[in-house]
Automatic annotation (TrEMBL):
Organism of provenance: Imperialibacter roseus
Protein name: O-antigen ligase family protein
Keywords: Ligase, Membrane, Transmembrane, Transmembrane helix
Upper taxonomic lineage: Bacteria, Pseudomonadati, Bacteroidota, Cytophagia, Cytophagales
Presence of keyword S-adenosyl-L-methionine: no
Any one GO molecular function term: ligase activity
Amino acid sequence: MKNLSPSSGTILGRFIRGEGSIPPWMQWVFWLCLVPVIAKLMVAKGIIVALGIIVMVVALPIGVSALWKTEIGIYIMLGLAFFVSIPNRLFEGIPMGILLDVVIVTMLVGMLYRCTYNKDWSTFSSPVSISILLWAGMNVFELFNPMAASRQAWFFVIRPAVGYLMLFFLTYDMLTTPKKMYRLLFVILGLSLFSASWGIWQANFGYFSWEYNYVVRHDVMHLVFNYGRWRAIGSIGSPAQFGILMAFISMLCVALLTAFKGTFTKLFLLFTFLATLMGMVYSGTRSAYVIIPIFYFGWVVLSRNKKLYYSVIFAGALMVTVAVMPTNNYHIQRIQSTFKASEDASYQTRARNKAIIFPWILKHPIGGGLGSTGVWGQRFSPGTFLANFPPDSGLIRVAVELGWIGLLFFLNVYYNILVKGTFLFWKMKNKRYKAIVSGMICAIAPLLVVEWGQEVVGVFPMSVLFWLFAAIMFRSIDFDQKEQAEQAKFES
């Protein structure tokens, strides 16, 4: 009988796709060839090679696994999103950005290979796929912007600008079952709880010694120490980003509490809600306070429950009371300052900057090029008008670097997430999926408002987490549609 065993090439191809393992004899050949090479390098280079081997033994299997097991890479990205600031604060000059890029590219190559091999491109057929790809394309197009003062800046900015966008497709592709989606969602909540607990500790007992050293070494005392109090930064490393993330997660937990059952699950969600809400308050981030009232208003609108409409009046009265009541409490005063922005010197400075830049934006439809403002502008095109302009706003930065045309592409992403998501939400049946989608929509909507005052989606870690949230939201919609289709098929 003819031997029908697969060839070595076929076995290797299956291994690359994650459908099998390399035969034992291939593994022996690989290691037998590698050992003398390693021995020679260790004799020549010493301990450096030995340390490099240890790193490779750990990193290489994980990296290769991420090639076909996207879930591994997504959880690596999630861990980095919450904890990458720790090695950055402990050690100087660690190229963590390159690590993020390598993980994303590895996952992307594996996903595109599988899509090509299986001739299945459904990953790119979500309701927001076109808007995200258009936004990514606009960023790539900026390489040819004749107004750009530096092409080199584009190469530095394009990696996170487009690479992090791809996390939406990678996550959407990875969430093939509700179980995987729930696991990812609750891991995010668990990490948020840990970070919130860290922030609460910082606010009550102070920073760790290595955190104090980082603050002094980088002269950022004015950012984290206000009115005799240390602002909580958790594991995130930035009080602004920490506060916004905590507000987002706390409101998401409110939505999830309405649908998820089980004593342990409800206690976990309740505890996470309280901890992240406290973390938001201790961060002292005024922009984060905006998220709560907008979330509640959006949640009431989505519910279509007339009884809840009256609660908006009560909530509005409560908000006005908190905004005007006399108090000596630092945290309440911080909240009140959110509604007295015109009296704030920093707000007045930002308002003047916006008034100066608006005429320039109108005359430059595709902007001044990626990396033309802020830190990148000062590094690659110092002395230019845009390099000396502080954007201080996510929307303004987009409008300055990519023009008002680029701003339209950016707003189109938000439009597709919020408006399309809302119409699809009203057609959903599964209570759990609806809770996830309503929580995401109502928590993402305030981010657009916050973008007017500061950068959100363009700043780490929200630049990573935002796309994971969007993928979870639209995969929930997809699961609900499939369940309804199956139910209709069964009933017919």
